[in-house]
Amino acid sequence: MPSSTRASDTPEAERARRRRIRRLRLLTPAAVVGVVAALAVLAPALTAYGPEAIDPRLRMALPSLTHPLGTDEFGRDILSRLAFGARITLVVSVASIAGAAGIGTLLGSAAAYLGGIGDLVVMRIADGLLSFPPILLAILVITFLGPSVVNVILVIGLLYVPRFARVAHAATLSVRETEYVAAAKAQGAPTARILRRDILPNIAAPLFVQASLALGHAILLESGLSFLGLGPPPPAPSWGRMIEQSSRFMSLSVWPVVWPAAVVSGTVLAFNLLGDALRDLLDPRLRGSV
Amino acid sequence: MRISRRTLGKLIAGTIVGAPAFVRGTRAAAAPTRGGILKFGLYRDPVGLDPHLNYGATSSSLQGNVYDTLVTYDVHGNIAPALAASWSQPQPTLYIFSLRRNVTFHDGTPFTAADVLYSFRRILDPQTKATREKEFEELIESVRARGDAAVEVRLRHPSATFLDILAGRETFMVSQRWAEAGGDFKKAMNGTGAFRLASYEPNVRYVLERFPKAWDPASLDRVELAPILDDRARVNALKSGQADFIEYLPWQDTEFLMRSRDFRVYRGFEVFNMIRLNPTRPPLVNPKVRQALNFAINRETVSLTAFGGQAQLMDGFLLRKDAWAYNPETSKVWTYDPQRALALLKDAGLQRPQDLHLVLDSANLTVHLDTAQVVATMLRSWGATVDLKINDVATLFQKRVTGDYMMMMDGLSLPWADPDFYYRYFHSTGTAYAAAVKFKNARLDQLLEEGQRITDRNKRRAVYADVERILFQEAPWIFVVWRPQAEAARSAVKGYVRLPGGLGALSVGYLNRVWIEK
Predict the structure, then answer these.
(1) Smaller CB count within 10 Å for chain B: N or C?
(2) Nearest to A234 among B304, B369, B381 (CB)
(3) How far is B378 from chain A (nearest CA, A)?
């Protein structure tokens, strides 16, 4: 049987197809993250109802034109609470991960570059923190400090510092032996400058990937803490507390639980897929794979 | 078929005569049966065991089944004999209690007049920090034994509520011999009640076993009380058969269980949700601000949103329509009136609600937190700044005792039906509120003391009407709602009676009346 040659079978077409898939794998989760970010930014303009405004006549109302996602057990607009909740969730996750990335990268790369006893101490402390189950450590710290947005940021940040330190440490160990670092040393460049100009740009790729994945985990952790009553106090609209509070009324209406649960799952999934796509994009060994 | 007048008359007569027999027959068929284990889902851990300290309703329920008081409440809410088989009052300030004979404590030691004296002494001992210490100190002049089986209590002044104090919780009779042999009231229980504490593991399970030598023995062999803190888990435990009886039934499950033939719901409205205000903390120092807060709250909205419309509005004070001292004049004073609230704020020197910076403490219990959220939201939408702080129950208890709060969401049940309950809250020495936050109104103190000492109901009615008028001026709390308080049981569980007249919260302490139909 004669073989038919199609345009799609040519190496060029195959590369184009892979590029399209890679782009799709990057853009789809990025679009979801963008929607959540837009939800947070545009929250006041999205609905006419404040996130805490109570309407006793409209408790657990079904989705309608006036309340597109329905209302919760207090008659509060679910869309408004999700949008304002996105602000809290994104602020907590971005602030905590940004802080953790900054501190963790600095500690990990400095420890790896300088070596010696400092390296040993920093990395053993990081290992110690990593050995704690994250949710247990978070509960302990929040119970001690009290529930608030700032404290949740602090605790999630604390949990992710060792993760970033580990990644930065491993990447720096391989970069510090390179010729350009040796050249900078030979020229008498100070350590801070070498770290800033020669090491940091060359270890950024794995850190970006780690940050994207960590953002998803941070959202999950923030929602979990809020679900347990350790997040921002009510009536602040946090996604985890929305799920917890409305789940008591599931026998009367499921909508107040379904929406925040779907938003948490969708956002976490989007950040995880974005992390995977970034890794594929930035890692030269995976660049050709789909 | 035609029925003659005579036949009709016979039928009616037969029905009238036969009806009681039918009812008797029904009762006979439903006679209590011995045996069985009752698995009881508690709302929270009982926290403490000391029989002279109030740790809240759940502890009181446990204590009520293990310990006895001198007098008790019958199913109609009337004072009835308990460890005192009878009593007399030869003078207005003298009570003589004849003790029940052949009663033994769970450790086998006999109950005598010496134990009554010891119990009174222990309540009066400042080291015990007994809940009733101040009331006893203020009321009791002397307690003397008259042989082994009678006790004479002399009061400093006549008291309309002395027997209520003895029938309520926190005045349980304890064994002197057991205590002097090293018994620790905080770690073990040794009462004369229908059940003895067989074993317990805090936050897990409290096992009560039938005490066969009890003077009023139980039908059940055993009661296993397990704290199931999560509302859904507690209701699911009942539905799945893991629990036979649960307390604090959430309102959203009440209607469903009421419709089901497999369960029975016992609901009352004797527990009230209110917000304690601390008059030493600005801006609450000014009573007009406290009044304004009461007018800024829409109680209808609280009932609808926090209790699905099942709560009753607390638009007056603590005396309700079924109380003999009820005063219609002060029964509907707290209306939702934001304009009046604003005017009161201005009278107090504050120009607008935005000048109010309030901190509201609440426990992380749904029956409190839902109300606190709604109230905080309402005050915020009025313009005030409200910082809602969530505490665990133990921390909130501590703050309540020390007065370390500005506003505190709380839920209370009345200790007894007599209006003397106002003394516990609003007399400057009142242990349930005033003493902790230094709330004092000299005229109110005088009236509350008077209300305790006079026994004529008409005069007392006038006194308590004045008390409520002063409470309106002082507004020491935000009076919110009488919340639905319900227990639910499998339909095979019989004999449980919810006490009337504001005593409903004590009902779980009478599990000796409960039995399981086989």
Answers:
(1) N
(2) B369
(3) 8
Give all strands (DSSP E) within B322-372, no chain letters.
357-363
A 251-290 residues with CB below 8 A of B?
A: 251-252
pLDDT in the model for residue B3 = 46
Task: Report yes or no: A227 at the B interface, CB cutoff 8 Å.
Answer: no
CB B384 within 8 A of CB B358: yes
pLDDT per residue over B156-195, tens digit each?
A: 988 888 999 999 888 999 999 999 999 999 999 999 999 9
Between chains, do B253 and A54 touch, taking CB under 8 Å as contact? no
SS3 (DSSP) at A147: coil
Contact at CB, A252 and B252, closer than 8 angstroms? yes
Cis amide leading into A147 (omega within 30): no
Within 10 angstroms of residue B279's Cβ, the number of other Cβ atoms is 21
Element (H, E) at B152: strand B150-155
In this structure, of A104-108, B8-12, B259-263, B504-508, the range with the lowest mean pLDDT score is B8-12
Chain A residues inside the 8 Å CB shell of B376: 235
| B304 contacts A56? CB cut-off 8 A | yes
CA torsion sign for A144, A150, A156, A158 is: negative
Nearest CB among A54, A57, A248 relative to B374 is that of: A54
Amino acid at B267: R
Q: Six-digit token pair at B282?
A: 């600005």
Of B436, B444, B494, the residue nearest B470 (C-alpha):
B444
Three-state secondary structure of A226-265: HHCCCCCCCCCCCHHHHHHHHHCCCCCCCHHHHHHHHHHH
**DSSP-derived 3-state class of residue B47:** coil
Cα-Cα end-to-end distance for chain A: 31
At B125, list the tokens.
């001992």
Alpha carbons A242 and A261: distance in angstroms, whole number = 9
Q: Which has the closest alpha carbon to B293: B281, B306, B311, B307?
A: B281
B334 vs B332: CA distance, rounded Å: 6
- Cβ <8 Å between B381 and A73: no
Question: Contact at 8 Å (CB) between B114 and B170?
Answer: no
Chain B residues with beta carbon closer than 8 angstroms to that of A147: 390
Which residues on neighbouring strands pair with residue B104, listed in sequence order? B110
| Residue in chain A lying closest to B365 (CA) | A229
| Integer-rounded Cα radius of gyration of chain B | 25
Which is more confidently placed, B32 or B19? B32
Pull the structure tokens for residue B307.
Answer: 């209790």
- The chain B residue lying nearest A73, using CA atoms, is B305
| pLDDT value of residue A105 | 95
Q: Which residues of B487-501 are buried (b: 16+ CB within 10 A; e: fewer)?
A: bbbbeebbbbebbbb
CB B444 within 8 A of CB B465: no
Nearest to B305 among A74, A229, A247 (CB): A74
- CA distance to partner chain A, nearest, from residue B372 (Å): 9
C-alpha–C-alpha distance, residues A250 and A244, integer Å: 10
d(CA B201, CA B108): 24
Q: What is the pLDDT of residue A136?
A: 86
Which residues in chain A are closer than 8 Å to B231, comparing Cβ atoms? 248
Give the pLDDT confidence of A183-237 residue by residue, as tens digits: 988 888 888 899 888 888 889 888 988 998 899 999 999 999 999 888 888 888 9
Tell me the average pLDDT of chain B.
Answer: 90
